[in-house]
Amino acid sequence: MKTTACSLLFIISFLQLMVPVNAEETLDSVTKKLKEARRLERPPSAMTKRLSCTSIKASGTLASCPPGMIATGCSCGFACGSWNVQNENICHCLCPIIDWTVARCCQMSK
């Protein structure tokens, strides 16, 4: 009796595995739902922001970015490659003799 019940249970389980399932349709519906959820997660303003940059040239060892902009890089005269950024908006060339300094200044804008 026990072997008959176990065999019957095995056959029923096996038959359930043979039931055709349209996996492609299921995958498509899941993909659509994920795309919709991702679209709703991001606010539209995040996709429309742009990076705008300008270069500011000054005599001497310092070049300052305009208010609201951040120095992203510097360039120095007399082939000086040693510089740092101070307070996020000032380029400072570190070589002893410098005739000009350029600050590359950028900001995110709508």
Task: Give your account of this protein's structure.
The chain has 110 residues and is an alpha+beta fold. It has a domain of 62 residues: Immunoglobulin-like (Sandwich). Helix content is 36%, strand content 35%. It contains three helices and six strands, in the order H-H-H-E-E-E-E-E-E. The protein has a three-stranded antiparallel beta sheet, with no helix packed on it. A hairpin with a 3-residue loop joins strand 4 and strand 5. It starts with a helix and ends with a strand. The mean pLDDT is 80.
Element layout with pairings:
Blueprint: H1 2-17, H2 23-41, H3 44-48, E1 50-59, E2 62-64, E3 70-76, E4 83-86, E5 90-93, E6 100-109
Antiparallel strand pairs: 1-6, 2-5, 3-6, 4-5
Subcellular location: Secreted
Family: Belongs to the resistin/FIZZ family.
GO cellular component, one term: extracellular space
